[in-house]
Structure formats: structure tokens, C-alpha cells
Amino acid sequence: xxxxxxxxxxxxxxxxxxARTLRLNGVEDVQLIDKGKSVGGRLATxxxxxxxADHGAQFFTVRSQELQQYVEDWREKGWIKHxxxxxxxxxxxVDGMNTLAKRLAEDLDPELxxxxxxxxxxxxxFQLTSEEGNTCTTGxxxxxxxxxxxxxLLEESRVSFDPEKFNQIKNVSVSPAFVGLFEVTGETTIPxxxxxxxxxxxxxxxxxxxxxxxxxxKRIISIYMDSEWxxxxxxxxxxxxxxxxxxxxxxxxxxxxxxxxxxxxxxxAQSAQVISQPFLNLHDALPLFIAGDTFLYEEDxxxxxxxxxxxxxxxxxxxxxxxxxxxx
Length: 328
Ligand SMILES: Cc1cc2nc3c(=O)[nH]c(=O)nc-3n(C[C@H](O)[C@H](O)[C@H](O)COP(=O)(O)OP(=O)(O)OC[C@H]3O[C@@H](n4cnc5c(N)ncnc54)[C@H](O)[C@@H]3O)c2cc1C
What we know:
The chain is an alpha+beta fold and 328 residues long. The protein is 28% helix and 28% strand.
């Protein structure tokens, strides 16, 4: 960690877009911090036995002109492809969603494996402390963690924020999700696109065959469980959860040819509520902003947190902070 003009906690899509926007607007001294060993957050891809599987976002849709412009550029560069869906296309990264995040974060020099555990007001901004006890100061701060993590961080900090606004973020609940990852050698009955989200047993939200999706040489399947099922089974033993998922997926997946199995447990997958503004200014006097996928533009009628909401929230927070920094 180092002292910086602007620091962003969370290098998921919204944090990456905030950092890129600040840089594009000429703010050079930007620090991007994440507790993970890679950027991307919920744009997550796992390498399994020489194959690959997405186990966070599988695809994204485009409703805004803002994202559409980027999509055209990313397609030209060969980073993404139209996966399925007509007339509403689902786009996906050609080599795993995490690679798209890594490409977008190139040149941002993120500080990884660094969990911020407290924030304190200091002269001209904030002082951040990491789990290892390291500290740094920053003039402005943008926090883009899933909201329950942001709430915990703020509760463990010494920052005087607007209580009404704080309650707004405290009242958002974020559902968990289980994703089972299975390598099999036999053919699945998942359609040729590699994606199915209809006609599935209760509790299963979607299944993806990454070989058919075109991102893996090995047949690795992700089975996504819905929020209700994941909530019900969240505290259960991993082996038991994996067994239950396999049982629900057996009509589609030839488990007799299984080579490996893994389970991803997302404590915070999808917000049950949204906040209808692109980011939140939490402090009356100091530049402390909260952004992320839960923040939607007022005109966004989907009421769904997703890739596009994270993308737009990060840009909006980045634009706003660029303006503030330039006024100083
Ligand atoms: C299972 C699953 C399936 C999904 N499917 C889809 C889909 O198909 N289409 C779609 O559009 N969206 C989907 N989504 C949603 C999409 O992935 C998210 O909306 C988006 O990626 C969120 O980006 P973000 O930057 O707001 O948050 P995140 O990606 O969560 O980034 C926040 C970052 O903050 C970091 N962090 C947290 N606390 C700290 C701390 N104290 N210190 C430092 N760093 C910290 C985390 O490590 C994380 O990297 C899915 C999500 C999940 C989990």
C-alpha cells in the first residue's frame, strides 16, 4: 500500500472501471486495492485440470449506450463474443470472464492480497489500515465491496458518515450462491450453446458446459443453485452440498464419467434490493463514496444487480471523483 490521491477498495468490475475512468480523466495517482489474489471479484474463472470454468458471472447483457460503446471495442479486439440470445444478446469473454477483468485492469497496477480492515479520518482525507497492520493515506476513497462487507468495514472504522445514508446500505441484503464445478468426460444434454436455464429441477438456476461454451478444452460444468436453495443449505457440510447438487444435475450431466468435483460458496452473490443512484456520497465534508453493482441509475428498470450495473456505477463514481480532484 502507498499514499495516494485516490484509493479504491475492491478491484471487481466497478473498482476497475472507477480506476480506469480516473486515469482517463488525467488523475494519475490512483491506488486500486483488493483482498483477493487476482482482480475481477465476481468475474471469476477457475482453472481445473487444464480446462476452465466461469463460476461467477457467465455473461452480460447490454441496455446502455455507455456499455454498448465498450462492447464494440472489446469485440473488435477479440476479447468477447456474442454467446447466445436473440434479440437480446448475451456476451461473454472468449477466454473466461476473469480474463476480461484482467485485460481491463492492465496498467492499473493493483495492490492484491490486501484486505483493508479499518478506515480513519486524517488530515486531508483518510488513513487505511490493512489486515497485516500496514497503513496508507488517501485524499479520496471509493469503496466497491459487496455492501455487507462495506458495512462491516465502516462499522469497524472511525469515520463520521451520514447515518441516513449508512442505513440505506445497511438495509441491503445480499443473497448467497453455491456453484458446483464438475469435470466429466461424457457428453452432457445441455444444449449446443452450452447454457441452460429452463426446465431445470427446483433449486437449480442454470447449468453451463464450458466445452460447448467454447472456453475450455475439457468438459467442465458449472451448476448454479438459486438464492433460496443456497440460503437453505448455506451452513451445510461441503461434501453433502456437492452430493445434493450432483443429484439434482444427474439428468443433464453424465456423473458416471466424473473426473473431479469442486464447490464454490459465494457468501455474497446478488443483492436482493437495489439503490437507485449510481453511487453514494457517504460523508458531508470528505470524499468518501460507495459504488458497486447494487447502485443502479434511476432510469434502469431492471432492478437487477449485474455486470452492467457494476460497470456503470464504477464509471459514474470515477467521473465524479475526477471532477473533485481537478477542483483542488
Ligand atoms: C454466482 C454468480 C453468478 C452471476 N451471474 C451473472 C451473470 O450471468 N450476468 C451478470 O451480468 N452478472 C452476474 N453476476 C453478478 C456480477 O458478477 C456482479 O454484479 C459484478 O461482477 C459485481 O462487480 P462489483 O465490482 O460491484 O463487485 P465484486 O466483483 O464483488 O468486487 C468487489 C471486490 O471487493 C473486494 N473486497 C471486499 N472486501 C474487501 C476489503 N475489505 N479489502 C479489499 N478488498 C475487498 C473483493 O475481493 C472483490 O474483488 C453473478 C454473480 C455471481 C456471484
